[in-house]
Specification:
about 190 residues; alpha+beta; 5-stranded mixed sheet; 7 strands
C-alpha cells in the first residue's frame, strides 16, 4: 500500500512539472512514460488481446465510440475506449462544429498488446483505453483550433497530446481522474 501511495505521489509530481516540450504538442519520451506511469499508478488494465477487449466491452468497462454517429472512423480495428475517454471525445465533437467544419476522424481507439503496430512505443497506453488518435484536420483554421484546445487542456493536466507525423494524427491521452464534466470549452 505504501509503495502504491509513493508511486501515485511521484506521478503527481511529474505531472505538476510538465515540460515546455509537451506544451508544443511535440511529445517526448518522458511524456509517453508519464502516460504509462499514470496508467499503472491508477490501476488501469492493459488489454493483452482481442478476447480481453471483448470481455471488458461486454462488462461495460469499455464503450464503443461508434455510438456517436457524427464521428468518422478510418482503419479502426477496436473502436472502444474507457467511458471517460468517450465522454471527452463526445464533448470535443459537440463543440467542434462551431469552430471547425471538418468531420472529426478517429484513426485508433484501444489496441491490445498483441496488436500494437511496429512503430508503437513500448510505453503505449493504447491498450488501456485512455488514448484515442484523431486525424489532423486539413484546414489550417481547424488545426489551429484543435491545437489551441489541446494546449489549454494539457495545461490543466486533463489530457496529454502528441502531434504525430506519419500518419498525421493527434495522439490524445485522456486522464480519467482529471477530466471534469464538460471540460472542453470554447476559450
Amino acid at each position: 500500500m505504501r509503495k502504491k501511495t509513493f508511486l501515485v505521489a511521484a506521478i503527481l509530481v511529474v505531472f505538476a512539472t510538465k515540460s515546455i516540450e509537451a506544451q508544443k504538442l511535440t511529445g517526448s519520451p518522458e511524456s509517453i512514460q508519464n502516460q504509462w506511469l499514470y496508467a499503472r499508478g491508477t490501476g488501469l488494465e492493459f488489454m493483452p488481446n482481442a478476447q480481453a477487449i471483448e470481455f471488458y466491452v461486454a462488462a461495460g468497462l469499455l464503450v464503443d465510440l461508434r455510438e456517436n454517429p457524427k464521428l468518422e472512423f478510418v482503419d479502426v480495428s477496436f473502436p472502444f475506449v474507457l467511458p471517460s475517454t468517450k465522454q471527452w471525445v463526445d464533448e470535443f465533437e459537440r463543440i467542434r462544429p462551431a469552430f471547425c467544419g471538418e468531420t472529426l476522424v478517429i484513426t485508433s481507439g484501444i489496441r491490445p498488446l498483441d496488436r500494437q503496430p511496429s512503430n508503437a512505443s513500448l510505453w503505449s497506453v493504447h491498450p488501456t483505453g485512455i488514448s484515442v488518435d484523431l486525424r489532423v484536420p486539413k484546414e489550417r483554421k481547424c488545426r489551429a483550433w484543435f491545437e489551441k484546445m489541446f494546449l489549454n487542456l494539457e495545461a490543466a493536466n486533463e489530457i496529454d497530446v502528441t502531434k504525430e507525423k506519419w500518419p498525421a494524427h493527434y495522439h490524445v491521452t485522456v486522464f480519467p481522474a482529471r477530466v471534469r464534466h464538460y471540460s472542453v470549452s470554447t476559450h
